[in-house]
Specification:
A: about 75% helix; about 0% strand; B: Cytochrome Bc1 Complex, Chain D, domain 2; two-stranded antiparallel sheet
């Protein structure tokens, strides 16, 4: 009863009668699968946090008792890939799929006849990842970066991906006729790209036994595409929906949005090889990646300008809105990430930074500062609409926000400064390797502190997520909603695309 | 035009080019690599790996060595690798043609291992390092890999490959620390890491 009441209360503020009727039916029909993916995301985020803290402690002090020296399955060589896999395929992928299918269903205006497929996909994905993570802990890794999951686990994950991907395409096919919006393109594109890269990278590397020298090329083509054509379009699709929604204005320029999408599609697959600068690959591969990294500034600046011009003028009144905060910080991190990415891909700079902590900090800026922040914003927006309750405590949301911002800021600057020192030291052959380790020791300690802050942030987030299911917020919060201006009309997107 | 068809074609066409360039092209061309023959000595390069190398490479992967150690040498104008004596020349695709799995690595918290089997030829050095890194290199931040060893009672003669340990690492009297099959495979693999033969496409750097 409680739930029903809460939903209809918000619907009163929504658009025309037919519109809001449809909306709540669509939302209700997709509730269970989205929440399964969202809950899985939170679960894996916590598992990832535990291993992140372990791995960063081990980097800082490998002999301390809390680094579990001598325990094979908790050693750095396994805790680190487990952290990365739980973060990327657990948290990032589950949260992204959840938000993605929610967005697609909303835009298609068609209530689901059956949510069996995405539910099954969620279960399959979790089983595959759990098997894969246990295999890595047991030492049965595939041994390729970000493709550590052994072939049997990767196969199960792919089945899950296929189920949810095909289901999404079917839904798009059967959508209510009318114009489409840029967010749909981003999300559908992400599903198509990810299915392709995940399948071909795994097949070429494990089943088809790629020749040795080809493996790094395939591996880094995969990693570049994973970041630029799976995680990035999901986050951009979400932001392109939520920003206009929250400021109650259409996106500043829809042409710019389309330009951003197609230029991302054009350059996104080419960015991976810069990590292998000076490596045993034909020079043109590296050069192509450097060019792509620089050209990637086009879609990035298009998106940044579009977001900025859309939100301009409304930021003051929305600055206390947590969804806006997370998304604005995430978008800023995206610009910073792309600019840094193109800088460190130049050969003159890259030869100093390529093996250092700078690349670690760069990846975290992308994975946490950009992607996760936008997904946190998406959770804060979507979950109350599906559960029919408000977030229990504003203070908790704000605490989560500040722990994230301070944590990722500290982590990034620490690794960037430490990595620069490490890079210049490595470049000087007179400085022995142990002396280089000594130089970065203080930075590894600060990294440990920063990771601890981010782990606390993740715990607060997980607690808030659990509490929304357990406790119904007092009525007074419901009016002063987490985002007060929210549910204007669902047509912002469609109206614009006509123009 | 149907939007979905357009999206499909656009997305796949644009992206397919990068797939052809970075996945399909190296897959096909690198499968056709051939060894070179030195006209004077008749030696083939690269010479190929010992039979145990693949097994050791699995242990190398399982323990995540490649998260801190790289396995490629950059040219003199692309980094300090050659000055650091990690190799006399840069490595090229042909160097890796016999490797079942290639671990180029992207971090150098530890030293590059392309030619570690050339720098260190004593298995004992590797065993002592893996058992307790600070014993070999006092300020090392490398973790210890105790699970690649077992401590057992000496049966008759001490084993030939028993690890020579000193101080607090030394086993109690009557016991010895020996590498497990995995530990031996890993050290065999590390000893096999030497790309010290000449290749025409990668001449040694001159001052």
């Amino acid at each position: 009863m409680m739930k029903q009441a809460a939903i209809s209360e918000r619907e009163i503020q929504a658009g025309p009668a037919t519109e809001r009727g449809e909306l709540s039916v669509v939302d209700r029909s997709i509730r269970v699968p989205v929440l399964i993916f969202f809950a899985s995301g939170v679960f894996w985020l916590i598992v990832a946090s535990a291993f992140w803290l372990l791995a960063s402690s081990q980097m800082h002090k490998p002999t301390a008792w809390w680094a579990f020296p001598g325990v094979a399955w908790l050693s750095f060589g396994r805790s680190y890939p487990v952290f990365m896999n739980c973060f990327v395929y657990g948290w990032a992928a589950c949260a992204g799929i959840g938000a993605g299918i929610w967005l697609l269903a909303r835009f298609c205006h068609v209530p689901l006849r059956s949510s069996l497929f995405p539910i099954l996909a969620g279960v399959t994905w979790n089983i595959g990842l759990a098997i894969g993570v246990l295999s890595i802990l047991a030492g049965a890794t595939a041994g390729f970066q970000l493709l550590e999951l052994p072939s049997y686990a990767a196969f199960i994950l792919f089945l899950g991906l296929l189920m949810v991907g095909l289901w999404a395409i079917t839904m798009f096919w059967n959508r209510k006729p009318g114009p489409t919006y840029i967010s749909q393109w981003y999300i559908l594109g992400a599903f198509l790209w990810f299915s392709w890269i995940y399948a071909t990278a795994n097949i070429l590397l494990t089943f088809a036994g790629a020749p040795g020298p080809a493996q790094p090329a395939i591996n880094w083509w995969y990693i570049g595409s994973l970041l630029d054509l799976w995680l990035t379009p999901i986050a951009l699709g979400i932001a392109y929906y939520l920003i206009p929604k929250l400021v109650q204005r259409p996106v500043y320029s829809y042409k710019l949005a389309l330009f951003g999408f197609w230029s991302l599609a054009l350059f996104g697959g080419w960015t991976g090889m810069t990590q292998l600068m000076g490596g045993p690959l034909p020079a043109w591969m590296i050069t192509a990646s450097i060019v792509a990294k620089v050209l990637m500034l086009l879609p990035v600046l298009a998106v940044a300008a579009n977001y900025h011009l859309t939100i301009k003028g409304s930021f003051e009144e929305l600055r206390w809105n947590p969804v806006v905060r997370f998304i604005v910080i995430g978008s800023m991190a995206y610009t910073a990430y792309a600019v840094e990415g193109s800088l460190i891909s130049f050969r003159s700079i890259g030869q100093i930074t390529q093996f250092t902590l700078i690349t670690v900090g760069h990846n975290q800026l992308g994975l946490f500062g950009f992607y996760s922040m936008i997904l946190f914003g998406a959770y804060y927006y979507i979950v109350p609409r599906l559960v029919g309750r408000q977030w229990l405590s504003q203070a908790m949301v704000m605490a989560h926000f500040w722990f994230c911002v301070v944590g990722i800021g500290l982590l990034f600057f620490d690794l960037t400064i430490g990595g620069s020192i490490q890079g210049f030291a490595l470049q000087d052959p007179q400085i022995p390797m142990v002396a280089v380790s000594d130089l970065i020791q203080p930075f590894l300690m600060v990294q440990n502190v920063a990771v601890l802050l981010l782990v606390v942030a993740n715990l607060i987030f997980a607690a808030a997520f659990a509490l929304i299911f357990l406790i119904s917020a007092p009525v007074k919060y419901r009016a002063a909603a987490v985002e007060s201006s929210a549910e204007a009309t669902n047509k912002i997107g469609s109206e614009v695309s006509v123009a | 035009m149907n939007k979905l068809t357009g999206l499909f074609f656009g997305v796949f066409l644009l992206f397919g080019v990068s797939w052809l360039a970075f996945a399909a092209y190296p897959y096909i061309t690198f499968a056709g690599l051939q060894r070179t023959k030195d006209e004077a000595t008749g030696a083939l390069a690269p010479p190929g790996n010992p039979g145990t190398a693949d097994q050791g490479a699995r242990v190398y992967a399982a323990n995540g060595c490649f998260y801190c150690h790289s396995q490629f040498v950059r040219d003199k104008n692309a980094g300090s690798d050659i000055d650091r004596k990690w190799g006399k020349r840069r490595t090229v695709a042909r160097d890796y043609m016999f490797d079942r799995q290639v671990f180029l690595g992207t971090s150098r918290l530890g030293a590059d291992l392309t030619n570690v089997g050339d720098r260190q030829t004593d298995p004992q050095w590797f065993y002592r390092l893996l058992y307790n890194p600070p014993a070999v290199s006092p300020e090392s931040v490398m973790p210890a890999y105790h699970w690649l060893f077992e401590t057992r009672a000496i049966q008759g003669q001490p084993s030939a490959d028993a690890v020579k340990l000193e101080g607090k690492d030394a086993p109690p009297p009557g016991y010895e620390v020996v590498p497990t099959a995995e530990g031996k495979a890993l050290v065999d693999y590390l000893l096999s890491l030497k790309k010290n033969y000449p290749l025409p496409e990668a001449p040694e750097a001159t001052e």
